[in-house]
Design the sequence.
């Protein structure tokens, strides 16, 4: 119960993302804060996903893969509009820039 | 790969008429032999355990015959061909399995020959494509393997006409290398595993073994109390040293590193031989690994971080444990430079990092010691206090190992004590960052900076650096990528 009551607010408070001309940034975590930075030029694929529940309330998860062996980066709980806009932008930039460092 | 297959279905590219080739017929014999050899311990074990049980024997026979059949069916059903654009491998009878890879994706080619394959002069080929585990071909004849390698890597190698196409030897096995083998912790680990396996088999003869051992130690015990302990320790040490030497010989016998133009060739192995070729421009960095005892003996091994061989194979040994001088010489020759990024002075990390290292190594030992002392009193557990000094030493050494530096081309980071590794990663191949700050690190104003890359383990960390310095380091290593975040973070801080 406590988890259900507190976690969403906490996550909403600490999770952040931002896209600039060069890179996509995310910040997650409260006790251990973790920032991830993916330069848009190195993006390989962009996927958006929304499960049945997420779809009802209009949220999506955006997953970005690069050549990094550390695994993909994902942003959860984006509004549908933001997610598709972000996916479009990233896909467009990824298509233009050559080289993914494999 | 599936994506490529889907794409490839559309274009009926030229080369559709290239005939399919069969793998070598000797596979039908070599594969069962090789696999049976692996099964032998289990067959013996199950025979010992089951005694005369007919069902288990039948099961063994069934397994053995299935293995024999698999070789035959592999030979009958595997086909491959190299067209102008693709490498295609097709296998399977009931379940069809087809792989089609654009040749431009091929990064490296590996040969492995188990003893059965060696006797029959054929080889297992693994083609690294930078994705998953690559493609394997079991097995083709040696000349065919070499031909395939030349053909497939032709496009990969950026050959410079100024350099001769002659193979240039960089390192080859010398008996002197063996002196580091008994000190290898990884060798000890393998020996311990093997010994425990043998011990399990030996359990059935436990009574006899124990009585023999008791008789031997008893005889010594008659002379002195401490002798049995010394004897046991000596036996363990000798077994570990000899065993890990044996493993070293199995792995690195006839080791040879050669360079032809841009291609590096590595050959090694006593019974099973490994042949690996990788394109020099696929090497994304280097790692110097110094295990504790080898480090004390002033040795280390050099590996290359590459892409294209799948997670397991992405660290290629360029030189097994050798004196640091030799490592340095080889590295300089590889880079064709005088100063190598693994042999420069590294920046120390803040004192707070020392505190964190000490807390991590000493605190668990201290808690255990105090708990034990509180519960059972000092008495027979007094020795546990002797664990404290090594814990402090370990913490101190782990701190001393921490270091980082940046050169024109490389980001260098070192950490670890028992298994100390220094990584030099090409700055141009850093494709992202992860910055982590735990609660403890935040209080100490430290950060762990991890550079993401396509090669090797995928992420290499600079542990516990000053927070502001970490971000500056990242910004300097790859200009442009982190600048915006730097600016915003400073705003956030205010």
Sequence:
């Amino acid at each position: 119960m406590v988890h259900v009551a507190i976690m969403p607010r906490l996550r909403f408070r600490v999770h952040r993302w931002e896209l600039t001309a060069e890179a996509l940034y995310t910040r997650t975590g409260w006790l251990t804060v973790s920032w991830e930075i993916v330069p848009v030029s190195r993006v390989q694929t962009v996927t958006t996903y929304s499960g049945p529940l997420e779809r009802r309330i209009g949220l999506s998860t955006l997953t970005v893969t690069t050549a990094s062996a550390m695994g993909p980066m994902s942003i959860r709980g984006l509004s549908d509009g933001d997610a598709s806009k972000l996916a479009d932008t990233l896909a467009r930039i990824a298509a233009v820039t050559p080289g993914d460092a494999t | 790969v599936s994506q490529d297959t889907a794409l490839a279905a559309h274009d009926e590219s030229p080369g559709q008429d290239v005939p399919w080739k069969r793998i070598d017929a000797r596979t039908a014999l070599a594969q069962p032999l090789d696999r049976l050899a692996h099964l032998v311990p289990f067959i013996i074990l199950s025979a010992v355990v089951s005694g005369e049980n007919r069902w288990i024997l039948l099961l063994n026979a069934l397994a053995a015959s299935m293995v024999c059949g698999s070789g035959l069916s592999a030979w009958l059903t595997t086909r491959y061909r190299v067209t102008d654009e693709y490498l295609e491998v097709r296998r399977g009878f009931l379940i069809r399995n087809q792989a089609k890879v654009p040749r431009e994706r091929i990064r490296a080619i590996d040969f492995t020959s188990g003893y059965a394959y060696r006797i029959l002069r054929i080889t297992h080929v693994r083609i690294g494509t930078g994705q998953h585990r690559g493609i394997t071909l079991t097995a083709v004849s040696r000349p065919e393997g070499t031909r395939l390698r030349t053909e497939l890597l032709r496009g990969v190698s950026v050959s410079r006409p100024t350099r001769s196409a002659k193979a240039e030897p960089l390192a080859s096995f010398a008996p002197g290398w063996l002196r580091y083998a008994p000190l290898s912790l990884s060798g000890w680990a393998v020996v311990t595993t093997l010994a425990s396996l043998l011990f399990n088999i030996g359990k059935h003869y436990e009574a006899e073994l124990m009585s023999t051992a008791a008789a031997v130690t008893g005889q010594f015990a008659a002379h002195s109390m401490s002798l049995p302990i010394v004897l046991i320790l000596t036996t363990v040490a000798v077994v570990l040293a000899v065993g890990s030497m044996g493993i070293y010989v199995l792995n690195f016998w006839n080791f040879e590193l050669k360079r032809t133009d841009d291609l590096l060739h590595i050959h090694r192995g006593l019974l099973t031989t490994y042949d690996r070729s990788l394109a020099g421009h696929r090497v994304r960095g280097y790692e110097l690994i110094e295990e504790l005892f080898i480090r004390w003996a002033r040795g280390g091994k050099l590996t290359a971080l590459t892409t294209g061989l799948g997670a397991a194979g992405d660290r290629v040994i360029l030189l097994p444990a050798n004196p640091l001088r030799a490592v340095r010489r080889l590295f300089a020759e590889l880079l064709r430079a005088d100063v190598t990024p693994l042999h420069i002075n590294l920046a120390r990390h803040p004192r707070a990092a020392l505190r964190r290292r000490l807390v991590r190594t000493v605190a668990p030992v201290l808690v255990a010691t105090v708990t034990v002392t509180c519960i059972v009193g000092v008495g027979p557990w007094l020795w546990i206090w002797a664990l404290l000094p090594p814990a402090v030493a370990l913490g101190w050494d782990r701190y001393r190992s921490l270091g980082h530096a940046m050169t024109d081309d490389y980001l260098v980071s070192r950490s670890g004590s028992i298994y100390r590794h220094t990584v030099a990663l090409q700055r141009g191949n850093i494709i992202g960052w992860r910055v982590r700050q735990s609660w403890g690190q935040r209080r100490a104003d430290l950060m762990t900076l991890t550079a993401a890359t396509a090669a090797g383990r995928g992420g290499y960390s600079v542990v516990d650096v000053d927070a502001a310095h970490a971000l500056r380091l990242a910004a300097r290593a790859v200009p442009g990528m982190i600048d915006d975040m730097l600016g915003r973070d400073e705003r956030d801080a205010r």
Remarks:
- The interface with chain A takes residues 130, 307-308, 311, 314, 429, 431-439, 442, 450, 452-459, 474, 478, 480-485, 488 of chain B (CB under 8 Å).
- Chain B has 16 helices and 20 strands.
